[in-house]
Amino acid sequence: MNVVIYKNRIYNESFEKFRDKLFDTELNYFASDLFNYGFNEPEEIEFAVQRAMNVCNTAGLAIQRNFKQVYVYKNNAIVCDWRLSTLGRKLVILNANTNNPFVARLQIELLGKF
User: Fold this and answer.
1) What distances in angstroms separate CA 38 from CA 33, 45, 58, 73, 110, one per listed residue?
2) SS3 state of residue 89
3) Which of 10, 16, 29, 52 could pair with 84 in a Cys bridge, judged by C-beta atoms 3.0 to 4.6 Å apart?
């Protein structure tokens, strides 16, 4: 019996769409919700999102599983926002500006558990 091993990944658009929809079900938070926790500027959140995405990339985790850029209509304008997984949200908060009391308390709380 001959065994053939295929090493080339065959692109399947239907599978990719299904996978993306499955990942979307895990994106339960919006980055803009962090304005309720003392975040004042969109740039502050954007900076934290970029750092959190870098953490995922460095750790070998799929970015699209934890972050998705979306556009929402808010205050008579279309603005950029991010949908986040639970892990993505935690990483964004941990990588935010430590001058934010919420971020500082969370970091102290987490380190206190170790």
Assistant:
1) 10, 11, 28, 22, 19
2) helix
3) 29
Runs of H (alpha helix) within the chain: 13-24, 42-59, 86-94, 101-112
Task: Please give the average per-residue pLDDT across 84-103, as a whole number.
Answer: 93
Q: Is the pTM of this model over 0.90?
A: no
Q: How confident is the model at residue 40 (pLDDT cuts 50, 70, 90)?
A: confident
Q: Which residues contact 95 (CB under 8 A, 6 or more apart)?
A: 48, 51, 52, 55
The tokens describing 93, both together, are 């908060």
The predicted pLDDT at position 22 comes to 72
Mark 24-35 as b/e (b = at least 16 C-beta within 10 Å).
eeebebbbbebe
The residue with tokens 């500027």 is 41
92 exposure class (CB count in 10 Å sphere: 0-12, 13-18, 19+): buried
For residue 32, give the DSSP letter. Answer: G
